[in-house]
Amino acid sequence: MKTRVISGIVLGILTVGLGIFGQISLGAVLALCSLIGYFEMTRALEVHRKGEKENALEISGFFWTLVLWVFLIVFSKLYGAEAFIALGTRVSLLCIMGIFSTNMTIYVLTFPKYHADQVAYSIFSFVYVPVLGIFIYALIFFCSWICDTFAYFVGRALGKHKMAPILSPHKTIEGAIGGVCGSVLLCVLTAVFIHYLYPEENLYWQFALIGVCGALLSMVGDLAASAIKRNHNIKDYGNCIPGHGGIMDRFDSTIFTAPIIYYLAAFLLTVIR
Fold it and tell me: Is 235:169 a contact under the CB 8 Å cutoff?
């Protein structure tokens, strides 16, 4: 538990620091996390068979992950956040088409070396980790992390009723409620801080709604990642983060939550005021 808490604090400080110090440093770290996360997911889904070296499908995924992040980092640095928002979806779609075409070509030219499910899972892993991960770059949002933290401690202190005993036997309904409350509290405090800086801005209910949605979605993302692990009989995706496991064990809910919260926040904070 001590190792888990320390790792979580270090990750939080690192993320905030990177967000402050610049787009390139933050983008580079998130690109590295995307590469590691993709590597972990392809192994969990057995795109990479045990005992094999990196295969052509994985190398294709690494290549298109780098293409995706390099384009986005360069455009956001040269032309600002507006360019990132405008081009992010288009670049992502082009890269999805790129990995689909590449991996299908590999499948055909090397048949029967790879099975169809390996091709499908390699593309799924690319969409799940690098593509959804770009929204963390666009919006460093802590609902999922705060929800996980509050849920963990409230669950340990008060948890009695199991929420999803097959997928995650330690998660409780009490912990889930604590996680939602913690997320909402963080978001409301953010609204208070914004009101202090800009008295004309009163965004309390918008941020509260973002907190609720972010927390609930993070739970779904966490359990979905757990379901994949259960299907493939693995405990953790990796071991690069002490006390947490791999990149996907720590960022599973964040990756799942970030795109939806990004667009929800854009809608609530710009369209509905």
Answer: no
Q: How many angstroms separate the CA atoms of 79 and 74, rounded?
A: 8
Count of CB atoms situated within 10 Å of the CB of 73: 21
Pick the closest to residue 26 from 116, 164, 111, 136 (CA basis): 136
How far apart, in whole angstroms, are the C-alpha atoms of residue 146 and residue 185? 10
Distance CA 265, CA 273 (A): 11
User: In this structure, what DSSP letter does residue 159 have?
Assistant: -
Distance CA 81, CA 138 (A): 8
Residues sharing a CB contact under 8 Å with residue 99, sequence separation 6 or more, in sequence order: 60, 61, 64, 122, 123, 126
> Do the Cβ atoms of 182 and 146 come closer than 8 Å?
yes
Six-digit token string for 175: 């912990």
Name the one residue in this structure whose structure tokens are 């919260």. 261
Q: What is the DSSP letter of 271?
A: I
Taking only the tens place, the pLDDT of each residue in 214-248 is: 788 888 888 888 788 888 788 777 776 665 567 77
Per-residue tokens: 139: 């919006």
Q: Across the chain, where does the E strand assignment appear? A: 162-164, 168-172
Q: How confident is the model at residue 6 (pLDDT cuts 50, 70, 90)?
A: very low
φ, ψ at 238 (rounded to 5°): -165, -165
Provide the whole-model pTM. Answer: 0.72
Distance CA 271, CA 144 (A): 24
**Residue 185, CA distances (Å) to 8, 34, 147, 201 in order:** 19, 29, 10, 18
DSSP code, position 63: H
